[in-house]
Amino acid sequence: MALANFIDRAATAASQVLADFHLGEFKAALEKQVVAVAFDDQAASCAEGQATLDLAVRLLARLYPVLAILPLDSAASSQAQALERLAKSINPKVGIRRSGKSATVCLVAGATRPSLRCATFFIGSDGWAAKLSRTDPVGSGSSLLPYGAGTASCFGAANVFRTIFAAQLTGAELDENIDLSLYSYNRTKAGDANPTNLPVDFGETHLVGLGAIGHGTLWALARQSGLSGRLHVVDHEAIELSNLQRYVLAGQAEIGMSKAELASTALRSTAFEVEAHPLKWAEYAARRGDWVFDRVGVALDTAADRLAVQGALPRWIANAWTQEHDLGISRHGFGDGQACLCCMYMPSGKSRDEHELIAEEFGIPEEHEQVKTLLQTNAGVPNDFVVRVATAMAVPFESLAPFVGQPLRSFYQQAICGGLVFRLSDGSRQVRTVVPMAFQSALAGIMLAAELVKHSAGFPMSPTTSTRVNLLRPLGCHLHDPKAKDSSGRCICSDEDFISAYRRKYGKRVEPLRNISAA
C-alpha cells in the first residue's frame, strides 16, 4: 500500500484547515489508518445505496492509503470487487483489506450493524434526504435520486477526516444525527414527501467550469435517470495529476483528457444531448453569437470568471462555491430586486493582477514585471528565473531544474499548485489560493446539480439567495444565508441599460429601478 501519487496536493488542502500542520506527521497519520466501507445487500442492490458507496470510495481513495471493503452478507459480495477496482483506478497502490479487524474508522451503508471496534458512521438516504447516524443503521431509499445519497457520502467522509484529525481541528465535534433534504435545506422538513419521479427536460442549459465542483455536478447528473435536454459543458483545460486530489470522476486513466471530453463521457449513458466546448467562457460566448442563456450552472474558481458569466446576462444562474471554511450554492435572477451574481463578488478597493499574485506565490514579488512578460509571451522560464524561485523558496534548485524552458504557467501549476514546493519545504510553503478537501468540492457540485434539476422541473425555489454548509463542523440548524443586493449602485443589476438588455432578451418583467433599493 502507498499514498497516492498526488498526495502533496491533498496535503496542501489539509494544511489549510489543520492547526500545527507538518507534512511528515500528516502522511504518517494517514498511513496508520484503515478506513472501512461496510455495506449489505440492502445498500448494494438499490440505486441510492450504490450511489452512496460509489461516491464514498471515490472520496476516501483520494486520501487514505488503506481501505477495507467489507460486504456484510453474501449478496453484497459482488459489489465489493467493483468498489475495489474503483479505488485502484484512483490510487493504483491503495491497500485493500477484506477484514475489518484493523479498521480505525468505518462508514456503513445499509441496514446491518457490523461488529467493529472503531468509530462508526451509518450513512444512507431517502430520495432528496441525506442521513447519518452515530448509533443506528439508516438504510438507503428506493428512489433513483442521487442527491441525498451523494450528500450522505460527503458527510461521512467529512466525519472520517474530523475523527482522525480531531486534535488539529478547532471545534471539530462529530455529527451525531443528520436528516437533511437537498429539496428544502430545512432539517425540520427532511422527512417530507418530496418529488422523486423526475422526468425533467433541462431545455438548453450550460454548465460552466468542469473542475472539482463541476465533477460533483456531473457525478450527480450522470446518476439521475429521466433527465434530458441540451447541456453545454464549457471548460478550456485538461485533467492534470494534481486534479485527482478532488476531481471525483477522474482517475489515473483520465490524466491529460480534456475536461469537456470527460464531461461528455460521464454523461454518455444519459438522455442529455451534450455539447462539449473546450473553451474559456468568453471565447465560447463570442463564438456563440446568440447570447441567450436560459439557465447557467456556474462552477468556476475566481470572482472575475463569475463576473464575466453574469455580464452575459443569463436568464437564471445557480452558482456553487467552496471557501476555506464552508461551501454553498446561490441562486440568481436579474433586475428583480434580489442580489445578482455580481452582487456576491463585487470588488472593493484595488485588486492585484494575476502576475502580481503569482510573483508573490513564487516568493519574488519584486519580479512581477518579468512574471507578467512571461505570462503574456508564453515563453519558457529561463534558468536564472528558476534559480531565484528556488532561492526564495529555500528548496534545492535541482528539484525545480526540470521546469527550465517550460511556460511559466506550467511551472506555477506544477511546482506551486501541484504541491512540489509544498512537499520540498515539508509544508512550510503553503499555497495562498484556497484548496478545498475533496468532500467539500463534491458536495458543492451535488448541490449545484440539485438546483439545476429543481429549476428545470419548475419546483419552488428557495426564497433565500444562498445556502451554505460547513463540513468541518457539525451541521448547523440554519443553512440559508440571505444576501442583500449590492447597495453601492455600482452593480450591473442597478444599471438601466443592463436591465433593458435583459428585458429585451427574455421579455421578462423586472422591478423598476426605483423600487429595487426598497426591496
UniProtKB/TrEMBL annotation:
Cited Pfam families: Prok-E2_C, ThiF
Gene3D superfamilies cross-referenced by the UniProt entry: NAD(P)-binding Rossmann-like Domain (3.40.50.720)
UniProtKB keywords: Nucleotidyltransferase, Transferase
Transmembrane regions: none
GO molecular function, one term: nucleotidyltransferase activity
Domain named THIF-type NAD/FAD binding fold: residues: 207-283
InterPro entries attached to this UniProt entry: Prok-E2_C, ThiF_NAD_FAD-bd, Ubiquitin-activating_enz
Keyword Acyltransferase: no
Protein's name according to its UniProt entry: Molybdopterin/thiamine biosynthesis adenylyltransferase
